[in-house]
Amino acid sequence: MSSLSAADLQRRHGLEGAPDPFPSLTENSNHQSAGASSVTAVDTNSEAAFPSLAPAAPAKPTTAGTWATPRITKPIAKQSGAQETLTLPSIDLNQVAGKGKAPTILEYQKTIGSKFRVTVTSVQQRTSGHFVFTIKGESERDVAKARKHIIISLSPSVSLKVEAPNSVIPSIIGPHGSTISAIRDQTHVRIDIPRKEVVSVPTNGHATPGSGPSPIPPAEDDEEPTTVVTITGPESLAREAQTLIMDIITSKRAKSTSRIQGIPKHIASFLAPRRAEFVGAAEGFGEVTTTLDRQAGSIAVTGDREAVKRVVEAINATIEELKTSLTPLKMGLPKKQHRLLTQAVLSEIMANTRCGVTVPSPEDPSNEITVWGYITQGSDLSAGLQAVLTKVNSQHAQEFTLPPAIASDVLTYITRTQYVKNLQSTHSGIAVHLPTEGQIKNGETLTIDFVGKKETVEAAVASLAGLIAKLNGATRNVHVDWLLHSSVQAKASKKIKAWHDVHNVSVYFPDGKLEKDAILLVYDPLSSREGSATDSLELVEKEILAFAKEAGSIKHELVPVDRKWHDAVAGKDGTTLNAIIGENRVVSIKLGPEALGSANGSVDGGIAKEDLIVVRGTPSEVDRAVKEILRIVENAKNDEIDNSYVVEFEIGREYVGRIVGAGGAGVNKLRDQLGVRLDFVDEADEKDRENGKKKKTSSSSGKAKVKIVGRRENVEEAQKRIINQADRLADEVSEVLHIPRQYHSSLIGSSGKYVIRLEDKYAVKITFPRESNENGEGKTREHLKPDEVLLKGGKKGVASAKAEILEVVEFEKESNNIIKFSVPSRAVARILGKGGASINEIKDATDAQIDIDKADSNPDVTNVTVRGTKKAIAAAKAAILAISDQIGEEITEVVQIESKYHRTIIGAGGQGLRELIQRCGGPSEPRAQAGLVHFPRPGETGGEVRLRGERSLVKKIKAELEKAAAGLRDRVVLGVLVPAVQHKALIGRGGQHLTDLQTRTGVQVQFPGSRSYSSVGEPENASDFENAEPADMVKVMGPRAACEAAIKELKGQIKVAAEKPAPQLTVQETIPVPHKYHHFINQQGNLLRSIRSFNVVVDQSSFPTKPAVPSGPPVDSTAAPRIDEEDAVPSNDVQWQVIPNYQDADAGTSEWTLKARDQASLDKAKKVLLDALKSAEEATHVGFLTLPDRTAFPRIVGSKGATVARLRAETGADITVSRETNNITVIGSLEAVETAKEAILNVVNTRAPRRGDH
């Protein structure tokens, strides 16, 4: 068995997301261009240069070293514009020289300044030699453009190469090229990935690689084939792109795909139901997916490498088991009934009876089906057989034999006219099966199978029989060389429709890929037009033959070309041949026996058939194709001369497997990069074969011969690389480190990336043991014990890797201190927090591991185990005990508050209660506030409010709650009559007078037409104003004494305003206003006050009795988060519901009488009212927007309501922001309501600018 690879071990230990203990100190050093001459400034704060060995706090990944990537500060927004600082390690002014000499740095800065409307200054640092550019401009956009141009134009251009495993290339490219496009857009560099091609040597006729002696099997541990990705562009940006690609490679390296092939058809049906069992074999080793291809008899397994290996092992074991445990039972069934055994039916039989069924293909003449079941379960076979009989007898199957003379014509016609689809649509519930291509090629009697209910099938068969009766004698085949079909179609394009319209004849040309000459003519059997089929067919045939004659003749030419050059003519997968033939396919080219028959021999002139190329087509096309073929052959012969240099040498046989690589990866890499052909020959095996001896299992000793063919310089380079690799393998040593198993997971890392990086850094192979077997040894090829880790590689690399691993182990020992203590069980809930929030916060703050378990002996005590450094465990213990101590000092109090006041005290989203707690000196954090105050849930009787917490805080909160309850008990709503014409004066400009009054008296004053007027309820003293004008009723809400004081002040102001003489109203007009629009039009900019501004008085005959707008969505108080609960966490959800407007409104109509001094004033008031009614008609919907809290409400309203007024104007919707709850009501058309909602959320999600922001 193979060793557990580094990438797979991490999943075995569950280390997803753990940090890297082996950060590379020179991650990009191997790719630094020769031309880079700048010196790196040492950054003592760099995690990449001085890595921390602690695994608890991973460093943020860096995109490149400081010497490679330009340092760009964030743009600084000032009143005068924007500014950025850019640092480049080196610059090359020759790149911007153009045709003349290179400009000076000052000249270049002037050019950039004028081009991008910025000011550019620069300075070269004395110590590092780096160039620091300062760019200033009026806008950030201009500065960004200038910065980008400087980087691209001045940074030296380099070409970097990254070797990526072939399996990772799709991830680098991304779906539809999205990933590589994003990297290009970010870095502005060119990234080239060679097209995926089959590995071959461009020998143009040579034997394909591997055709000689079989290479020695590769070792399992070698890497997969790679593709070279080339990155070209400014040095700093190229290295940034290189790092991004390397990150993708690292994350994907542990993935693999394996395919199990040659699965017998009857066994495949038993594997499909056991998919979950196979996937379960990979549990603990990563994710894996399986795909079963029944036709190909294969299963593809894709996922994490170790998981794939285990699933493949499980599937192979199951296949071997099934081969010996299944027994067949054969049964003959008419072929027509085979159609009833679809894949869905077979899967159902398997699920119900544990039996598989194999059905012969339609081309197979056998009518036997086979039922497979377990040898030990004879009853299953009987049940399976019975299930098959039940299914085949559940529907009627009938064959219809096509007349042999016109069978092919009938199939062509019903296929091209979609007759079968129409037949199935007409006769619902039937399935129609046409003959397969194999049956047609075999020349069998062709039948069409029908499946369904008997009466429906018989009706469909009768319809087909009627069609065939009409087609008999109504078809004709016109033979025209298939190479002329496209030309005939082009010439007859206008005639084809006329032939059908005038002569009732349809023309069907065969697919050009079939290379058939026959053109089918059909006298339309579905047409009601009368006429002679024979005459019409003859007329169309003559015209088609005339067009064929005009198209020209067909030329046939034999081109003698040695067989070894045919591959060059054909090209990879026939691509070169397709290019010669062209898109129009008016020429045919056949290579060797394909054209003149498969029999051996020769043609006239003694030329062997396999050395011929046959070209057919129009004369001009044949001449062109022959000329192109001869040119390709000549080029191939010249290439052979250039690529015929050969070198042979020997290497140790034990190194061949590692050099060849898994699946030939190493050899393929040399072939891809150098274009050479390699063969490895074991001389001992060759001698055994020559002497007729059976090949024995050879030892690793001895020599193997290497043969390389290609261009001289390429062959010599390949030889050099192979010899160097063999020398490195000869220097390889092994060393076993004894490391306790508990530290293995830390050394492996997430996705194995730590140990992979260590392997890459020191060129070594590191093997960890797998799960131990009964003997206590790990299940690896090296038979490692559980506490052993094997290192293989060069002496120096093994020594360096060993030192670093042991250093990390020592650090792990130092960091894994453990402390245990206990806390009261009642404090555990507070220590953990909602969803573990509190304990996770402690873990993050201290970098310690914390485990909490209840003590078995005492349920009142819970044990806590803390792991980490001494400092970390001390801090974690202190934090946990602090929470536990708080629970011990708590007291509990009860306050009696009527349930009708609870919602008001809690406030929308708990805002009122949060503010109350903070006023008492309590915490501001929601988690800390949770549990201090607990109100009864809806449905619970009584008004007990429970307080629990620190003694002094609980006392303060209790006093504040009692004060708030007392204020609510004393709150009343009183009415006062104020003439409507004086409302505007009492409110004041911008509401100033009203605000002053409310502030002085501590009440709320609602004038008619205000948005909250209807929601405050009816006044206590409403009976005192039964005959009063509703438009004069002003409501005052608050403590009784304060309300009475405010009313007294209002009455005092009324007397002063009443001294003005009332205007004389001589003109009036009555307008009907539906009750359902009453509240809406009154909320549109305070309609009544607008009308009165024209000195017009309004009398209303009646008023609506129902609420202003439909009730909002029901509130599920049980689901809403509550601040007064222990585990409460404020919700961040935004709720939105739209309902039709006016659905529950009054149905009556009110007569509005407008009275004015003159007609002009009346007309103005009338227009305002009619416009409001029109808006009301368009306000078809009401939206209710509920925010998680009221923190954004001030921004939504704006200064003196400016923002909400702007939103109303922009969206055309009426927007009401609640003063008490988290609700916002939006009224208008559906489009306006949705637009207003989005506009409000934009305001909510836009953070208000703070002092110091740039």
Automatic annotation (TrEMBL):
Keyword flag Methyltransferase: no
Keyword terms of this UniProt record: Repeat, RNA-binding
Pfam family, one: KH_1
MF (Gene Ontology): RNA binding
Stored SUPFAM superfamilies: Eukaryotic type KH-domain (KH-domain type I) (SSF54791)
Spans annotated as Disordered: 1-71, 201-225, 685-708
Entry annotated with the keyword Repeat: yes
Bias (Low complexity): 48-70
K Homology domain boundaries: 156-250, 553-634, 643-727, 731-810, 815-885, 889-966, 970-1055, 1179-1245
InterPro entries assigned to the protein according to its UniProt record, in alphabetical order: KH_dom, KH_dom_type_1, KH_dom_type_1_sf
PROSITE patterns with a match to the protein in the record: KH_TYPE_1
Polar residues: compositionally biased ranges: 25-47
Protein name (record): K Homology domain-containing protein
